[in-house]
Amino acid sequence: MSVNDVVLSSRVRLARNVWDTPFPHRLSGEQSQQVINLLANAVAKSPISGEFTLTFLKDNSAVQNQALVEKHLISLDLTKNAQNAAVLISKKEDLSLMMGEEDHLRIQAILDGLSIDEAYKKASEIDALIAQSVRFAYDDDFGYLTACPTNLGTGMRASCMMHLPGLTMAGQIEALGRTLGRMGFTVRGFYGEGTKAYGSIYQLSNQVTLGKSEQELLSQLKETAQQVIARERGARRLLLEKNGIILKDRLLRSYGVLRYAAKLTTKELLQLWSETRFAVSENVLTEIDIATCDKLLTLQSAQLAVSQEEKLTDLARDTLRAKLVKKILDEAEVG
Amino acid sequence: MKCEVCGVNNATIHTKIITNDEVKERWLCASCFEKEQQKSQSVNINSLFADLLGAMGATTSAPSVTCPTCGMEWSEFKKTGLVGCPACYDAFRASLLPVISRAHGKTRHVGVQPGAFAKKEAAPAQGDDIASLKRDLELAVSLENYEEAAVLRDKIKALSQEGAEK
């Protein structure tokens, strides 16, 4: 049974560092460049080199980098080191190799829905490929060595992006966070560590990376995700049962605003998207489907700015956003 | 002789700890000795094990201040939570073990290894070799698991004797 009413996407990230080389925060600009060249060449020499594009963050505008963050292809942390950072992104945008973040290399695979195993397979294939020509820092006890001890061992952070409007409305997210914390998992905001949960979107990921095998961690994440899915669905149904028409009215009004607003900020978009998606998932709203809902996520600020040639004022951008939302919803309702 | 703690009462209790060539002696009065025992049983045991570890060449005292490879200081790690280079894990191994144990619960990698450069075929299970037992003993002492530490100490002793006999 599909779980995309709750799970948006799955991601596996592997942290790797080059043997005998100081970690990024202790490298000069020149040394950072050398490490990036070493890693980029390892990919360039491989059979899959044609699938990747190399971008140096300093060659991008701030808006272009922000767009990559919105698409979850790079982290906020990478943009903070923009002068000495680069990223290799696959054509399908399902794989990104960040260079110059907290570790020399962070391989990341992102796929829609609950596809943890597939994401791991993609990430580990790239890992094995690069390892053929680059020696990674590794210790018999501590496994893959990373700048922060919290990433040692497998160096793997596996996560699911989940939409939890039910648990958020029921005020149960904090309690969930505590329960999951005791089981070795964390729940974080939309853009990862240290970010807010806009649109009731949370990232569920493993906390421990050492002392358990990759397969154990992946299984545990899948099991935990299933439990969170069940709780979220339960929360949604209970809320609708208890609040009946009052809640339905609120959700449908949100869809109404989305449908007819003349201008929308990103924050408003995420909030309205969240309530609309809740309504669609519980068949309160039947005019559109989940896939259409998720198309709206591409209309966040930086991605919108990048798609336009001229620079837009905030008002112009918000107006454009509302127009594009309307276009997407028009097409969906007719079809 | 007066008690070395209070300097008032006569010292009626004499403790002598001998490790290899090193001898540590203390002279205490009955009440100071009792107070010390009550305050923390572990204090005396801790010094016992510290002496034992000292004799075995491991370190539980202040960590080496700087990493010889990248020059990072332990104090920097305490501020940033990041180490400077892969070799820091060797330089600060003893001090990092409790940090790592707190973060992950375990201190031994059991997952995938870098294929081309792997030294062994499979990830080793929690080994019974002396080196890994010594590391476990260090960790147990720093976490105050003294029963565990005693068991490990005895295992190490047994293995060393076996090794000597061979």
> Largest interface, counted with CB-CB under 8 A?
A-B, 40 and 35 residues
Order of helices and strands of chain B: EEHHHHHHH
Shape of chain A: globular
Helix content of chain B: 40-55%
**Could you tell me how far the N terminus lies from the C terminus of chain B, measured between alpha carbons in angstroms?**
48 Å
Question: What is the strand content of chain A?
Answer: 15-25%
List the helices and strands and how they pair.
The complex is a heterodimer of chains A (335) and B (166).
Chain A: E1 7-16, H1 29-44, E2 52-56, H2 62-70, H3 76-80, E3 86-90, E4 95-99, E5 105-112, H4 116-131, E6 138-139, E7 143-144, E8 156-163, H5 165-169, H6 173-182, E9 185-188, E10 201-206, H7 214-260, H8 266-281, H9 290-295, H10 301-307, H11 314-334
Antiparallel strand pairs in A: 1-5, 1-8, 2-3, 3-4, 4-5, 6-7, 8-10, 9-10
Helix pairs in contact in A: 2-10, 7-8
Chain B: E1 13-19, E2 22-28, H1 30-39, H2 41-56, H3 74-80, H4 88-91, H5 93-104, H6 130-142, H7 146-165
Antiparallel strand pairs in B: 1-2
Helix pairs in contact in B: 1-2, 5-6, 6-7
Pick out its properties:
heterodimer; A: about 325 residues; alpha+beta; 8-stranded antiparallel sheet; two-stranded antiparallel ribbon; 10 strands; globular; B: about 170 residues; mainly alpha; 2 strands
At a glance:
With 335 residues, chain A is of the alpha+beta class. Chain A is built from 11 helices and 10 strands. In chain B, strands 1-2 form a two-stranded antiparallel sheet.
Plain-language structure description:
The complex is a heterodimer of chains A (335) and B (166). Chain A is an alpha+beta fold. Chain A has helices spanning 29-44, 62-70, 76-80, 116-131, 165-169, 173-182, 214-260, 266-281, 290-295, 301-307, 314-334; strands at 7-16, 52-56, 86-90, 95-99, 105-112, 138-139, 143-144, 156-163, 185-188, 201-206. The longest helix of chain A is centred in the last third of the chain and has 47 residues, at 214-260. Chain B is mainly alpha-helical. In chain B, strands 1-2 form a two-stranded antiparallel sheet. In chain B, a hairpin with a 2-residue loop joins strand 1 (13-19) and strand 2 (22-28). The chains are: A alpha+beta (335), B mainly alpha (166). Chain A binds chain B through residues 17, 19-23, 25-26, 102, 124, 128, 131-132, 135-145, 147-150, 152-154, 156, 184, 208-214, and chain B through 70, 72, 80-87, 89-90, 96, 99-100, 103-117, 119-120, 123-124, 135.
